[in-house]
């Protein structure tokens, strides 16, 4: 199979799934308010053959008093998950959810972080599949486990200290993917402190999508992020959100638009506010 594009539409995925060597499909449905909802939704209906990645147990590690809400998984745990769903080094992967890609992009990023470059995102997610294909499977999918290994730490990340120093020295452009109300500190429905990291610019991840929940044209995405970067380069951009999940949406958008090399602040806001000595800003 030839190299997959980063973004694939439902009819193209359907054609690939009918081939002798189909891509691996991973369902990433999730809900921050109900940790069991994602698996329940997958069991209720998913793309035929798709395995499920649980945001809390597969795409994240155990939360501690120092981390954000969704720290990176232990590499061996993530390797075991990939082996359990049947990934092999040469097999492409397509990830999707029913939330505009907000959760699937975390799986996409982790695959790249683990050295698996053949990873794509289904444009429009499960709703696009229902609209164009309308063929679902219910219950548990049968999988053929592999001995997948992979090599972690293949994508750039920054920690809180590196971020704070980089911002103080004006070496980084911090991009916050949360909605404007949370960014300004007017409301905070999840974390204990409202506001944002001083120096951050707010580019809500939802604005990467059109009214139908599809990704905007690559030229539009490129213009959006190019306008936010100066005087910094793409490789100096760092993405954050509440816990390092939807931040990957903006990181994906930049990569898709040809703006390569940006980093993820995995801990994001929920980690930053663990230390009361770290600065917090409110308003624009």
Automatic annotation (TrEMBL):
Protein origin, superkingdom: Bacteria
Enzyme Commission identifier(s): 2.8.1.-
Keyword vocabulary terms for this entry: Repeat, Transferase
InterPro entries hit by this protein: Rhodanese-like_dom, Rhodanese-like_dom_sf, TST/MPST-like
Record domain Rhodanese: where: 19-138, 168-281
CDD domains in UniProt: TST_Repeat_1, TST_Repeat_2
Enzyme class: transferase
Keyword Phosphoprotein: no
GO MF annotation list: thiosulfate-cyanide sulfurtransferase activity
Entries under Pfam families matching the protein: Rhodanese
Protein name: Sulfurtransferase
